[in-house]
Amino acid sequence: MAEVLVLVDHADGQVKKTTAELLTIARSLGTPSAVFVGSNVDAARPRLAQFGAEKVYVIDNADVDNYLVAPLAEALYAVVQQASPAAVLLPSTSHNKEAAARLAIKTESGLITDATAVEAAGDGVSTTQSVFAGSYTVKSTVTKGAPIITIKPNVVPPSAAQASATVVPVELTVSDAAKGAKITAREPKAKSGRPELTEAAIVVSGGRGTGGDFSPVETFADTLGAAVGASRAAVDAGWYPHSNQVGQTGKQVSPQLYVAAGISGAIQHRAGMQTSKTIIAINKDEEAPIFELVDFGVVGDLFTVLPQATEAVQKA
Ligand code: FAD
């Protein structure tokens, strides 16, 4: 079976869940190989092996770390030339989408971004995207070259399948042309202790209905081990950081469970969460549009319902 490359999303060798998801998808298309960019591959190998990576192509080159995007595209291109893969899969982040586009130009292949499903179709690959703020589902297939596909998080449950994760070093000299934008400082965000919004299996979000008091939202989220999201109204009011905004101009999430508290369900908010597996809304207005897309709805005051739900979960 042809190789399918998966770009590893990691922090100093700690492999993120999206990589396990992409390796799971890659196994349905061919033989998965991971592409690891960085210096700590030893820390990453066990998890890459656990989710089925037969090979791990390693690019350990400081220039890829020190310059924005273009060197990553060159690194991926070097692996593509070596492996001649059937497809290249990347986690959908703005950084990776730019790298994927640059790679597609180099390989003269078709590019599909933000896929929510990827499956084998004859000799090719069929993908699904949710577009126009989620009002349409589009199915596409790449007709030229090896498909390059960025995939949203949480679209499949990761499933383990042990493989050898054999390390294959890849030589790379980054071109001067790719060194157009240098990273001058990296400052880690203060850690909240909660899972990352786009990676979390459960997201609890608050909107204008919180009136600026996110404490019941945060307490419920912590009880479930969930990430906290916010509507733009809550962010614009200065109640929550923009990094937690869910929606068209915020983050796109696709967790197993999404809880919207005091959020009306505007189309721009839906665009960021409607591919969630199960959606629960708490809103005191029974006519709120959010109730059109929920699996479970509670008509009530979030300041009453969330503490009750928190207590019920704690007792369970
Ligand atoms: P509201 O629409 O005001 O809804 C508040 C809800 O809370 C109401 O339904 C009310 O019944 C309920 N409520 C009030 N008190 C309580 C209570 N005590 N208990 C329970 N329920 C209560 N929005 C986003 O979220 N994300 C985006 O990325 C985004 N991008 C945008 C991009 C563009 C170009 C534009 C034009 C808009 C965008 N918006 C986005 C804004 C969007 O249109 C809505 O204005 C916003 O989502 C509304 O936020 P909300 O639901 O919190 O507030």
From TrEMBL:
GO terms for biological process: fatty acid beta-oxidation using acyl-CoA dehydrogenase. Residues 4-187 form the Electron transfer flavoprotein alpha/beta-subunit N-terminal domain. GO terms for molecular function: electron transfer activity; flavin adenine dinucleotide binding. FAD binds at residues 208, 231-232, 245-249, 262-269, 283. Signal peptide: none annotated. Keywords: Electron transport, FAD, Flavoprotein, Transport. Heterodimer of an alpha and a beta subunit. This is Electron transfer flavoprotein subunit alpha.
